[in-house]
Design a protein that fits this description.
Blueprint: H1 3-11, H2 16-22, H3 27-34, H4 42-52, H5 67-72, E1 77-83, E2 88-92, H6 108-111, H7 115-130, E3 134-142, E4 145-158, E5 161-171
Antiparallel strand pairs: 1-2, 1-5, 3-4, 4-5
Helix pairs in contact: 2-3
Protein name: Helix-turn-helix domain-containing protein
Pfam families: HTH_3, PAS_4
Organism: Paenalkalicoccus suaedae
Length: 174
């Protein structure tokens, strides 16, 4: 089941029929994609991803061998991409406190709110405003206790147009 896709659709107040119509699919086929019964073609994944403004690779992460995931999965490193509204469009290796499925399509403040999140959002906004790589040590209250990350934020572009911000967060120990 692609619960992240269902959550995105419901958050946008769309029905399965609405999405299917936008991407020229039969509603039943789209429902099978949502429920993980069928995998979309690459072209269909791109069309659906455009509706929700997410990365089309999300459709294949769970099925394909992903060397990037295998290299980073046990490391205290988080990679993420957000659009200009700071909604997550892709994330790899999130903290154990957060499910990948509940992060995609949401902003940090829609996920949780604390001083660490406020600093992270400020870092992302500064990076978008200056279009420069920024970094900062930020501490978050997590279930395992306060955890500090060294976070790098980098503007990302679609051609010459600023399209979002990518972050790399490495758990920091003094």
């Amino acid at each position: 089941m692609r619960s992240w896709l269902i959550n995105l659709r419901k958050n946008m107040k769309l029905t399965q029929s609405d999405v299917a119509e936008k991407v020229f699919l039969d509603r039943g086929y789209y429902a099978q994609i949502e429920h993980g019964v069928r995998d979309p073609s690459i072209e269909t994944a791109i069309k659906i991803a455009e509706v929700f403004q997410v990365e089309p690779t999300l459709f294949f992460n769970e099925k394909l061998y992903n060397p990037f995931y295998h290299v980073t999965s046990k490391l205290p490193i988080i990679f993420a991409i957000c659009d200009l509204d700071l909604r997550y469009t892709w994330i790899s290796n999130p903290s154990k406190d957060f499910s990948f499925h509940n992060v995609i399509g949401k902003t940090d403040f829609e996920i949780t709110h604390n001083s660490g999140v406020e600093a992270l959002v400020a870092l992302k906004k500064r990076t978008l405003q200056t279009e420069q790589i920024s970094s900062e040590l930020i501490t978050f209250p997590l279930s395992k206790g306060d955890t500090t990350y060294l976070i790098y934020a980098k503007p990302i572009y679609d051609g010459d147009i600023l399209s979002g911000v990518a972050t790399t967060s490495v758990e920091f120990h003094e």
